[in-house]
Amino acid sequence: MVERRWLSTLAKGDPNALGAIYELYGERIFRYAFRMLGNRADAEDATAETFLRVMRRSGELRADAAFRTWLFRITRNLCIDRMRQQKLMDLPPDAPYTGSEERSTLRVTVQQALSELPAEYVEPLVLCDLEEMSTQEAADILKISLPALKSRLYRARRALRDKLGSIVEKRYE
Fold it and tell me: Taking the chain, what is the end-to-end CA distance rounded to the nearest angstrom?
């Protein structure tokens, strides 16, 4: 309901509405970009570019359920473009991780395992398991069928489990 109101306001040309839409989605878009790119600076750039594109296309916006899918698709495409430009899946040594040392180690381990998976596996994992989207919405964002998404998700979870097992074994040998 709130989203529809702000989208309608933005479509009418009110630039203040973009800030409200950013408040609704900015953190989730950043998290998604960070998980895809593994780099804070690049994730911030992708997030900013996503909302710039929303502002540029504000006259075309429709206040419907497809907005969130469209927003994540923009971010996904920006991340793919950035990954094509250079290999960005390496975890930066200065990435800020909060929490206990054990929790930080776990985050680094998971990020490392994700970075070793093919992009076709990472995207479904990030959308469904980390961003908690429905499988249908993730399939729409990735422009694949629901059965294809479920198959990739199954293979991705299995591959991640295998990677995490080998990383944990190496760390504690």
Answer: 53
Number of alpha carbons in the 13 Å side-chain half-sphere of residue 152 = 24
**pTM score of the predicted model:** 0.58
Exposure string for 73-91, b = 16+ CB within 10 A, e = fewer: bbbbebbeebbeeeebbeb
Phi first, then psi: give them for residue 12, nearest 5 degrees: -80, -5
pLDDT surpasses 60 at 168: no
Rounded Cα gap, residues 166 and 162, in angstroms: 6
DSSP conformation letters of the chain? -HHHHHHHHHHTT-THHHHHHHHHHHHHHHHHHHHHH--HHHHHHHHHHHHHHHHHTGGG---STHHHHHHHHHHHHHHHHHHHHS---SPPTT----S-HHHHHHHHHHHHHHHTS-HHHHHHIIIIIIS---HHHHHHHHT--HHHHHHHHHHHHHHHHHHHHHHHHHHT-
Instruction: Quote the pLDDT of residue 166.
Output: 65
Total residue count of the chain as it appears in this document: 173
pLDDT, one tens digit per residue, over 117-151 is: 888 888 898 888 888 888 999 999 999 999 999 99
